[in-house]
Amino acid sequence: MSTSDTDTQDTTIRINGPLPGVRAQAILARRDATSVRGLYRSCPIVADRATGATVTDVDGNVFIDLAGGIGALNAGHCPPEVTAAIHDQVDRLLHLCNIVGTYESMVQLSEKLHEIVPIRGPKKTLLCNSGVEAGENAVKIARYATGRQGIIVFEGAFHGRSLLGMTMTSKYDLYKRGFGPFASEVYRVPFPYEYREKPDGMSTQDFCELRIRDLKKALVAQIDPTSVAAVIIEPVQGEGGFIPAPPEYIRALRELTAQHGILLASDEVQTGFCRTGKMFAIEHTPGCGTEWDVDMVIMAKSIGSGLPIAAVTGKAEVMDKPHVGGLGSTYGGNPVACAGAVATIDYLREHHLADRANEIGAICEDYFRRWQTKHDVIGDVRCTGAMCALEFVTDRVTKEPNAVLPPLIVEEAFQRGLIMIRAGLYGSCIRSLVPLVITDVQLHEAMRALEAAVDAAVQRAASA
Ligand SMILES: Cc1ncc(COP(=O)(O)O)c(C=O)c1O
């Protein structure tokens, strides 16, 4: 991309020369020499600093960030109120360990989570360091509280990369190959993936009933319901390709689990904190938090604007079952991360970023639908709030996944000043998790750049 294409006063993206630049290349070479090969990197950005929805690299190039730290930056890069709270905490107390004692920021964060998590009645919280750790603790608590061992998860799920997290995760080749044996007592059922699996002409309601029948069958064929501690669901699958579970499915799932005394946990690690147009994606199902609720909500990523902080919040009678000393970690809910998370939640609410997510989603969807009319390789467009994805196919009728285009698009997008990532069980999606503080002008600029990237990638693929 030549400088003249982007380097004007009224654009945010500024590319000074060939990418990656000279400084970036030198650091990338050092990364390759020192970081393990297993650590994937989506694009060759070497960041120096970032603000809002933009990242400046070590060569002075400015990018618009559509990856948002894989959904960790809903409040944007370095929101000033958050960095101020972190600075204040850093100067007073870095660490104590909440197994040793107490500091106010851990209490403040739990209190704040209890205001926003859509669970009725008394709640309790365990603070952790990462999404996978919060998910593992939800499993520990569910097993202890029910005295049962079985955990049911979904095809296409992603719950992290620890032994149990990886076991609960789907997409074998990428996340699991060579890493077994896996943990026991984890069972998997089909997710209500409408685009790929709903038979033509079938209503969403009927499809949800079909998928609930799959779950009922699993409770006969795979595990007895009296042995199941919990079902863990992403209300919108993240790594799986931004696939929303219809509200009809969530309600039926709640009813079925309740009938059998099975706990229901919503993994909101990627969907939480305004990303989908609500504070939590489970709230898209009507009556959540008022007429019905889940037992636990698993949170991480955008809770802390980039700090290592995560949480499980749940019904007090469930959360308080494990014995004293049975839960915890050295750093889980450390003072600095808690101060950052408290300020982040305030920021998300004060700036109405759930509403902003809906506006962003509407703008992205407009562009995506228009691209769909010119490229028949775009099989599906999915936007839940600002959780937006395009799914590519080789044939719209057979819906054969197209895993060739997404990496080409990411590459072309980078050359045009965008940071992006792929998704999908079949690796056939590109997704946007753009910081919700992006301005309309920046968003339109990013969409124009992405459109050019998609056009170029489609052309490259066709002539290959
Ligand atoms: C839904 C979901 N759960 C859990 C995780 C794991 O979180 P972490 O990478 O913080 O361990 C992720 C990460 O992408 C996720 O998207």
Automatic annotation (TrEMBL):
Cofactor(s) of this protein: pyridoxal 5'-phosphate
- Under Enzyme Commission nomenclature, its number is 2.6.1.48
Molecular function per GO: 5-aminovalerate transaminase activity; identical protein binding; pyridoxal phosphate binding
Key words, A-Z: Aminotransferase, Pyridoxal phosphate, Transferase
Taxonomic superkingdom: Bacteria
Family note: Belongs to the class-III pyridoxal-phosphate-dependent aminotransferase family.
Q: What is this protein called?
A: 5-aminovalerate aminotransferase DavT
| Protein's organism | Novipirellula galeiformis
Q: What is the lineage of its organism?
A: Bacteria, Pseudomonadati, Planctomycetota, Planctomycetia, Pirellulales
Q: Which gene encodes it?
A: davT
